[in-house]
Every structure is written in C-alpha cells, then in structure tokens.
Specification:
The protein has helices at about 15-30, 55, 65-70, 150-160, 180-195, 245-255, 260, 265-285, and strands at about 1-5, 35-40, 75-85, 90-100, 100-105, 130-135, 135-140, 165-170, 200-205, 205-210, 215, 220, 230, 240-245. The chain is α/β, with parallel strands linked by helices. It has one domain (about 1-285): 4-Layer Sandwich (Nitrilase/N-carbamoyl-D-aminoacid amidohydrolase). It has a 6-stranded mixed sheet with strand order 5-4-3-2-1-14. A 6-stranded mixed sheet has the order 6-7-8-9-12-13, with helices on one face. The longest helix has 20 residues, at about 265-285. The radius of gyration is 19 Å and the shape is globular. The model has no long low-confidence stretch (mean pLDDT about 95).
C-alpha cells in the first residue's frame, strides 16, 4: 500500500482555513496515489489553543467534521481535532475515516502537564486503547504523549494492530547543527517499539510556530524490524509518501515471535499485585 504523511503547519484556532488546507494536502496525496493519509495531532485546530480550546470543540457529527470525513471516499484519512463529547467534555482526538464514514476515534489517553505542556487543564483523558479494522488490516492510533508510555503500543499490538499511527505535535528542544534532541529521542522510541511489537509505525509531526514554540517536523515511517523506511525534512512542510509491504509484519513476527511468546496471564497477574500494593501503601499515608 502507499501511505502519506501530511507534515504541514495548521493555522491556530481557524477551523475553516485548516479545513481548506486539509483539502489541499488531500489533493496532493491523491495525485501521488496515496491510499492512507495521516495528518498531525490537532491538525484541524492547531496546538497552543489555551482558552480557544472551548471555542473550537466540535462533535464528531458536526458539519465541519462531516465535511472532512466525506473526503475519505478516494483515500483513507486520519486527522486530529478538539472533540466535544455528548456529555460536554473536550478531548484531544484523532479520527480515522474511510469510504466517507467514520471508522474509529481515539481520544488521547496521556495528557502531558510538564514543561511547556498543560493539556490536562483543557482536555479530558481518554480511557480506551484499542485496535480497529480497516481495509488494509488491523490498526491502532496513539497521539503523541501516548507513545511515551510503553504499555500503549504493547496493548495495541496484543490487540492485533499491525500498523500504529502516531500523530504528534513535538516541539524543538536542544537544537544543534544536525537535529534537535527531541527528534533523536523520538526516533529511538519509534525504532524500539516497532521492533518489539513487530508493527509498522507512522509518525506524523507538524511544523511551524505557535506562541513562540516551534515544531520540528521530521515525520518518519518505521517497518516491523525497527528500520526507518523514510523521513521527512526538518522544519518545512512536506508530503512524505512511500510504498510499504504489509507482508513484512507476517515475516517479522514469524522470524522473531515476541508477541506470540508474551505471557499475558503473568502480566495481568503482576499488574494486579502491583496495583494492590500501591493501594495498601496509600492507606498507610
């Protein structure tokens, strides 16, 4: 299959402008015969929203979201937005659309509240990490910080995901002449998780600057052996598209059967023990 990563710069808080930007990148992807197009985290709204978060929240059934979902007739689309739930909670969400319909919506589970990040102030926390079927096979979505909790990709791989989509908004930190520190850290994590979980990982990071914060881009695709298939440029907009062989998942899992040999009963049993121990420690505080 041919996959594409739309590494672009959304306009902060402008849903209509970002919708039209999405259309432009979708058209580029169609011309390049892309079958699955992944956008960055919060691609429809921008990231540093602060109090704008309350204004740009939309239901998955709203006109703005429905219009973009309708664009998935010719290729599968994965885009990010501020979701307003039926019980009036805002979530940092990513939606997978295909054939003009919503296939799956993932709500970001791990909301960073350290350094420059304050997502927990504005967003509710997702409570589900689950794979889902697509025309290309079983997939999963992890939004940026989700990827830094090793249990998240582990759960998706155990749930049958063969490709994990990772939309991100990772900023520039510790810049030197070749790359940024956050960039090399990302690649090490992606390579490691791809190899351990024998799955494709598609990381789509945005570029541009918001409120003095720059995002490095450098979107990347890892194969199930932990090898980098392709990488986008740093700090500039780019459609990164490449053909991938989904049969590599089968080959890698036969050659190195780490998923097969995982002892889920042991993992569940020990996690329950650890949780009980922590509860007991709290009672003594």
């Amino acid at each position: 299959m041919r996959v594409g990563l739309a590494q672009f710069r959304p306009v902060l808080g402008d849903l209509q402008r970002n919708y039209h930007l999405h259309l432009e990148w979708i058209e580029k992807a169609k011309q390049d015969q892309v079958e699955l197009l992944l956008f960055p985290e919060l691609s429809l709204t921008g990231y540093c929203l602060l109090d704008l978060t309350y204004e740009v929240g939309r239901s998955i059934y709203s006109e703005e979201i429905s219009q973009l979902v309708a664009q998935s007739e010719k290729l599968d689309l994965v885009f990010g937005f501020v979701e307003l739930s039926e019980d009036h909670v805002l979530y940092n969400s990513t939606l997978y659309a295909s054939k003009g319909k919503i296939v799956h919506t993932h709500r970001k589970v791990y909301l960073p509240t350290y350094g420059m990040f304050d997502e927990g102030r504005y967003f509710g926390r997702g409570e589900v990490i689950r794979s889902f079927p697509t025309q290309f096979g079983q997939m999963g979505i992890l939004i940026c910080e989700d990827m830094w909790h090793s249990s998240a990709p582990f759960l998706l791989a155990q749930d049958g995901a063969k490709m994990i989509l990772v939309p991100g908004n990772s900023p520039v930190r510790s810049l030197d002449q070749t790359e940024v520190g956050s960039q090399s850290f990302w690649y090490a994590n992606l390579e490691n998780q791809a190899a351990l979980n024998s799955s494709f990982f598609l990381f789509c990071n945005r570029v541009g600057t918001e409120d003095g914060i720059s995002f490095f881009g450098g979107s990347s695709i890892m194969n199930p052996y932990g090898d980098e298939v392709a990488r986008a440029n740093m700090l500039e907009e780019q459609l990164l598209s490449v053909n991938i062989d989904l049969d590599e998942v089968r080959r890698s899992r036969l050659e190195t059967p780490l998923l097969r040999d995982e002892n889920l009963d042991l993992t569940i049993r020990e996690l329950k023990r650890i949780r009980q121990s922590r509860l007991e420690q709290k009672r003594w505080i």
